[in-house]
Amino acid sequence: MATTFTFARPRTGWLAAGALGGLALAVAFSPLFAPKTVHAVDPTTATPEHTISVAGTGIVKIAPDVADFSAGVNVTKTTVREARAAAAVQMTAVIAAIKKAGVADADIQTSGVSVDAVYDYTNSNKPRITGYQVSNTVTATVRDLDKVSDVVDGAMNAGANQLNGITFRVNDPAAAEAQARDAAVKDAKAKADALATAAGVSITGVQTITESSATVPQPMVLRAAAPAAADGVATPIQAGTNEVSISVSIVYLID
Architecture of domain 66-168+227-238 in CATH? Predict the structure, then answer.
């Protein structure tokens, strides 16, 4: 996302143009003078502003406080009806386990349901359907990171046979973004001061500021079908840290 701020600065060329334009009207309507043309100053010939353009970056590392967990069940049966029924039973148990681990109803969402035919390609000229696979995927937002292991293990023990991964993020990154923004502007200003000193000029103001931001989540990929956790041994989960990055491009006015 990019945001641009422009700081206006009066131009003497246009002031001169306005003054001459007023003079032209006075001359044109005066009975003592014959009509004549007065040309305004061409803005393209006005003295251009001198600028320095720099970029600055600010990065803040912050511990995540939310985890998004995705798991599913894949069931293959001879008929669609059998596959659907078996998948429904397994997913109902998975959702119940996720809730039991402390995840609220509002933080559990079905993210995908699909039915696919399973083919036998032994005879490549005429593949035949041998069954049907029903997949049902659910996503859970875990707001207490101490419960992530319980959610993962509970879902696996309840019948989830597909883990799509865990993503750690910051629920409200506003404070970290403010710190990163301040650091980015200071970084840009330091570069501009160094350039101005080296060139023997002075910074007199700011013409434009453009900002772009990004929050980098910490993913944990668990793509393979996972076995149930061993008795008494919880799946180890490490949240790590996330990065909030702000970049700015600033055009400084110089004399």
Answer: 2-Layer Sandwich (3.30)
